[in-house]
Amino acid sequence: MRVRKFVTFLGVGLGLALSFAPRAWSQGTTYSLIAAGRYLVDAGDCASCHTDTAGKPFAGGRAIQTPFGVIYSSNITPDSETGIGKWSEKDFYDAMHHGMSRTGKYLYPAFPYPWFTKVSADDVRAIKAYLDTIPPVRQRNRRSKLPWPLSVRSVMAGWNALYFQEGVFQPDANKSVAWNRGAYLVQGLGHCGACHTATNAVGAPKKHQRLMGGDFGKHWYAPNLTRDLGDGLGNWSVEEIVEYLKTGSNGKDAAGGPMAEVVENSTQYLSDSDLDAMATYLKDIPAHENSSSAPAVAVADRTDLTRGQALYDDNCTGCHMVNGAGLAQVFPSLKESSAVQAKVPDTLIHFILAGARKAVTPGKPTGLSMPAFSGKLDDGELADLVNYIRNAWGNHAPLTDASAVSKVRKEIERSGELNARQPPVQAGGSS
Amino acid sequence: MTTRMPGVDVVLVGFGWTASILAQELTDSGLQVLALERGKFRDTVPDFATTHIQDELRYAVRKDLFEEPARETLTFRNSVDQTALPMRHLGSFLPAAGVGGAGVHWNGQHWRFLPTDFKIRSHTEARYGKKFIPEDMTIQDWAVAYEDLEPHYDKFEYLCGISGQAGNINGAIQTGGNPFEGPRSRGYPLPPLQRSYATTLFDKAVQEVGFHSFPCAAANTSQPYKNPLGVQMGECTYCGFCEWFACGNYSKSSPQTTILPVLLKKGNFSYRTLCDVTRVNLDASGKRATGVTYIDAQGRSFEQPAQIVILCAFAQHNVHLLLLSGIGKPYNPTTGEGVTGKNYAYQMTSSVDVFLDKTLNPFMGAGALGQAFDDFNGDNFDHGPEGFLGGGYVALWTTGGRPILQHQLPEGTPTWGAGWKKAMAENYLKSASIATHGSVMSYRQSYLDLDPTYRDVYGNPLLRLTFDFHENEHKMSRFVTNKAAMVAKAMNARSIRVKQRDGHYSIVPYQTTHNTGGAIMGDDPSTSVVNRYLQSWDVPNVFVMGSSVFPQNPGYNPTGTVGALTFWAAHAIKTLYLKNPGPLVQT
Q: ipTM above 0.85?
C-alpha cells in the first residue's frame, strides 16, 4: 500500500494568495472555482496532449512519441465510462500528485506528474472542477505501444523510487513573490522541464541540467532556458520573454513546431502578471558552469563553412537577411538566437527540412510561414547550411553532418509533416 | 440533378480582392458569408514559396497562375461586321484563377483616379464644349465622386500598406509627390520603395524637360508592415518577380497577405474552391435573386440559396454571368439601347526603350518600383489644341530583369543568331523601358454580348468581345508617347526605340489585363447596369464589384479604385441595405 503523505499547503498559499483574487472558495462559489480551473488547465497546456488533431476537446487519443514507444493520451472529459467522470477529487489529486490512476495503476511520466506534483491541492481541486464542466465524450483510451518490460506499469514503482520527488512546491522566502509565483508555474503546471531538461537513459530528467535544454522527441530539441548568453535566454529581457509567451514571437525569435503549440494552447492565455513572474524566474536560472563562452571563429577563416554561406545567400537571405538578423517581429533573427545555437541542432534542421509556421495568437494572427526545403537541399548541403548558420555573425555551436540531417529527414518523412509546407510541382502549362 | 445547399446570407462569386474585402466587412456585421471560387486554394506557403516562385518558364511563359482557355475563354472580333473567334491562348490580358485572384499575380502598381475622371462627360462639356466629344463616344460620369471614394481609397491603402509619396494632402501640395492627384486625407502608410538607378536617371531627365516627377505608389512594402486587421507583411526584397508571379516574402499586398489570415478564422465565413458559378437564379418575378447555381470539379450541379448575391469575378466574367442570368437588358449597338455589356473599354499602352552607357542592374526590381509623371493624364493639360480626350501616365518601371521575357534590344537587332546574342550581351544591363499607360474611352461599338456560335464546357454561350482602338486613342497615345520620347532623349541615351501601338487592336500580344465596362454604373437605369452603390437596378439583391462597373477606362491601373469601390459598396450594404433591403437609389 502506498504511503499517503499529508500535504500542508498553507505555506504555499501565502505566496499564491496574491495572484488569485477569488480566494474564498467555499462550496457556494463554484463559478470562481471553475473559472480558476479553466485558467489552470490552460496553464498546464492540457489541450496539447489530451486533444487529438481534429479530435474532440480533452477526449485524448493523441499519440505521444517517447524514446520508448508511443503512448496515447487519455480521455479526461467527465464521461463516466471512458473519461474521468467517476473520479473523485481525491482520485484526481492522486493522479496529479502521486502519478497513480483511480484504479491504482501507475501512470507513465509522459503524463507529467513529476511536475504536477508541485501543484497546490487547491489548484488541483479547481482543475477537476473545471474538467467536470466540459462536454463528456465517449471515447475509449487507446493502449500504449511500449515494449516489455515497460508495458508492465508496475515497473514505474522502481522508476518513481529512483527519480520521482513527490511534493507540493515550496516557496523560497529569500525570493520575491513574483519569482515564487514564476517558479511555481514553470516547475509545476507549466512542466517546462518535461521538454527543456535533458533526460537520462530511462527518461528521467537530469537533476543538474534543469532547463538547460532537452529532447522533445521526434527530433525536436527544446533549447536552453537558463541565463546562458549563447544558447540560453541571457540576451532576452523579461519583457521579451513575456511577449514571446503571450504572442508566440518577439523582436528576436518566434515559436515554431511544438513550442508554437504550447503558445497557442497555453501561454497566450496566461495573465501578464503570471507571464512576468515566469520570466522573472527564468531570468534567474544560472547558466551551466561548463557553458562555453569561447569566442566565435570568423566565418571567413573557416573554409568548411563557405559552402554553407553560398547556400544561405541563395535560399535564406530573402527573409532572414544577409546579416542573419531577420526582420524584427516578422522573420526571426538567426543571429544570437538560442534556438539556432542549441547544443543539438535538430530543431533547426527540422525547420529547414519541413518548414515552420509562427504561432497564431489574437495579437499576431498572420501565421507567417517558412516553406520546406527538403526537396531542394540534400543532407550534405543542409548540414553545410546548418553549420554556417550556427557559426556565422558571432554565433557558435558544434558542427553537424549529413548523417544527423538524414535522421531528422527520415523522421519527418515518416510523420507526413512535410506535406504541409512543400511547394507544389508544376501541374503542366496552360498554353 | 441539382443538389440544394443550405442557404447563406451572402454568396460571393469569386474569391479575389473584392470578395475578400466584402467577406471581411460583411462577416463583421454578423452575416453568414460564402465565397465560391472556380480555382484552387493558394497561400504564400507552400504555393508561393520563395526560391520556387521565381520560375519564369513556369509562371510567365507557361502562365501557371491564370485561367485555362481550354476551360474558360471568350470570342473576339474587332467590329460588328466580323465573325468572332474563340481566344484559344491567353494573350492580350491574363485573368487569374484561384483564391486571391489577380491580387496574387499583380505588380502592385497602385493609383487613385483623378477627381475629373469621375465626371468626364460633364467636365469635358463644361471645359471644351459638347461638340468636343465624338458622337459615337459613349462616355458618362460615374455615379460617385472622388470625394465619396476618398475615405475608401484610404482604407484600401492602409489595408495594403502602400509605399508612396503623397502629392496632395487635404489640398496642400507635397514636395516630391504627384501634384495632380486628388486631395488625400493623409499620406501613405509606408515611405516609397528604394529607387533603382534607372529611375533616378529618369527622375533627373523628367525634371530637366520640365514635367513633374514622383515615385510611384507601390503595393510592395518598403518596410515591414502591420495593417489595421493586425496582419503582418515583410519587407520587399526587390527580387524582381512580381507581375505574373506570386510573392513568397509576404511583401506584395494580396488577399493572402492582408485579409485571409483573419477572415479564414471566422466561424461565419466559408469558401468552396473549384466551383464554377453558371447562373444567378432569379425568382418568378425576375426582380429578386434566390441564389446561384454552380458546378463543381466533378461536374455536379448545386444550387446555393442566398439573400444577397455579389459578383466578384473578373470584369468580363461578371458581365458574362449577368447576360447568362438575364439580369439587365442586353446592350444593342445598333439601337444603343440596353445596358448589360455596354461600354467595354481597354487601355492603350506604348513604350520607349532607352539604351545607355551605364550599368543599371535591372534584375533588382519590384513590380511597382517606378518613377512617373502625370502631366499628360486625364484632364491635367489643355486638350483643346490636341483634339482628343483622355491621356496617360508615363513611367519608368524597374520591375525586374527576368532572362526570357524582360529585355530591350535596339532598333535593327537581328531576332536570332550571333547578332542577337551580341546585342543581348551589350544591352541587358544597360537598358530600360519607359511605359505609357493610356486611357480608352467607351464607344457605341465596343461591347460584350453572348456569342451566337461558340459554347463553353457547360454548353453555355461564350462571352463575345467586340472592340477596336479608335482614332481618339491613337492620337492620345502618339501624344503621350512623344512626351516619353522627349524624356528618353534627355536621359542622354545612346539610342532609343519607340514602340508606338498602331492599327487595330490585336488580342494576341500581351498589353494589359485592365478590362473595364459591361456592367457600368450610373444615375440612370436606362444607361447603366448598377447604381452608385454597385447595386443592380433590376435585381436589387445583386451587387457587382470590380472594373466592369467603370463607365470608361482612365489612364491608370484599376486596382486602387476597385478596392475603394468595394469598401464603398460594403459600407452601403452594411449601413443602408441591411437596415432596409431594397433599391438604395430610387428611380
A: yes
